[in-house]
Write a structure and sequence with these properties.
By secondary structure, this protein is of the alpha+beta class. The protein has two domains: 129 residues, Heat Shock Protein 90 (2-Layer Sandwich); 95 residues, Actin, Chain A, domain 4 (Alpha-Beta Complex). Strands 1-2-3-4-5-6 form a six-stranded mixed beta sheet, with helices on one face. A three-stranded antiparallel beta sheet has the order 7-8-9, with helices on one face. Strand 2 and strand 3 form a beta hairpin. The longest helix has 29 residues.
Length: 266
C-alpha cells in the first residue's frame, strides 16, 4: 500500500469516527432530561387528602390505632406554605413516635396483652384534630391530641404552631422585644384568667390547694406557657387537663388582648 492509499484510509477512518461520535452524542441527548431535575421533598407522614385543605394519616395496628388530621399547605405566600406544613408534619411525626415508644408495642408479652385485655375492641389510641387561626401577620394551628393508654381515663393535650409570613415557626418568646419580662406578665394574666374561669364554672372562688394548682400551672416559665395561638388581635394561652386544675375541670383558654402587651411586643 503506497502513501496515497494510507492517507485515504486514514481519512475514511476519521470520517467514520466522527459519524460514530455524532450518533453517540445524539443518543445521549435524546435520553437526557431537557431541564435539570429539581429537588423533591418526601412527605413525612404521607397522609391522604380528605378535602381541599386537609390530610388524614391513619394506622390500624394489632394493639393501637392512630388517626391524625393535619392541614394541606397553610395560607402563606410561595414556599412559606410548604415550609410550615413540613414543620407541623414533623412535630406530629415526633409525637407519634413517642406514643409508639411509650407503648412498646413490639415487646408486649402474652401476660401484658392478657392483663390489659388487648384485642380488636381494646387498643391504645392516638388521635389529633386541628383548628386554624389567623392574624394580619401570622397563621396559627392548634392541634388537640387525644391519647388513650388504657388508664383510668384518656388524656388530652395540645400541640400548637404559629408561623410568620415567611413560614418560620414562632415560639412565644419571638413575639416580644429582646430582654422583655414577658413571662411574669403573661403568668399573672393567665393566673387571673384561670381563676376567673374556675369561679364561673364552679360557682365559687377557688381556694387552698386549687389556687396552688393554678399558681403552679401558670408559673412564669416557657414550659407552663408553651401552648398558644394568635386569633386576630388576641393572644390565647392554652392549658390542657391537669395543668391548672383537676382533670374534671377540663381545658382552659385564656384570651389576652395584644393591646395590653403593646409595651413589650416587637
Amino acid at each position: 500500500m503506497n502513501a496515497k492509499q494510507i492517507v485515504a484510509w486514514v481519512g475514511v477512518l476519521l470520517v467514520l469516527l466522527i459519524v460514530a461520535l455524532g450518533f453517540s452524542l445524539l443518543a445521549h441527548t435524546a435520553h437526557a432530561p431537557t431541564t435539570a431535575p429539581t429537588a423533591q421533598t418526601s412527605p413525612i407522614l404521607g397522609g391522604v387528602a380528605t378535602s381541599s385543605d386537609a390530610y388524614e394519616y391513619t394506622e390500624n395496628a394489632q394493639y393501637y390505632t392512630i388517626d391524625v388530621t393535619y392541614p394541606i399547605e397553610p395560607p402563606l405566600p410561595g414556599d412559606a406554605s410548604a415550609k410550615a406544613e413540613r414543620v407541623m408534619e414533623q412535630g406530629l411525626a415526633d409525637d407519634i413516635a413517642q406514643f409508639k415508644q411509650d407503648g412498646d408495642f413490639a415487646n408486649l408479652t402474652p401476660e401484658d396483652i392478657q392483663t390489659q385485655g388487648l384485642g380488636p375492641d381494646r387498643k391504645y389510641v392516638y388521635a389529633a384534630t386541628y383548628e386554624p387561626y389567623q392574624s394580619t401577620s401570622t397563621v396559627s394551628y392548634v392541634f388537640t391530641i387525644y391519647e388513650d393508654t388504657l388508664g383510668a381515663h384518656p388524656n388530652g393535650f395540645y400541640q400548637t404552631f404559629t408561623f410568620d409570613n415567611q413560614g418560620n415557626q414562632l415560639q412565644l418568646a419571638d413575639l416580644f422585644k429582646p430582654g422583655a419580662a414577658y413571662l411574669p406578665k403573661l403568668s399573672a394574666l393567665a393566673y387571673q384568667g384561670v381563676v376567673a374561669e374556675l369561679t364561673a364554672r364552679e360557682g365559687s372562688v377557688p381556694a387552698g390547694d386549687e389556687l396552688d394548682t393554678v399558681r403552679i400551672g401558670t408559673e412564669p416559665s416557657p414550659e407552663a406557657l408553651q401552648f398558644y395561638y394568635i386569633d386576630g388581635d388576641t393572644l390565647h394561652l392554652l392549658f390542657p387537663p391537669y395543668q391548672v386544675a383537676a382533670y374534671a375541670a377540663g381545658t382552659f383558654d385564656v384570651p389576652i388582648p395584644m393591646s395590653s402587651l403593646s409595651d413589650i411586643l416587637k
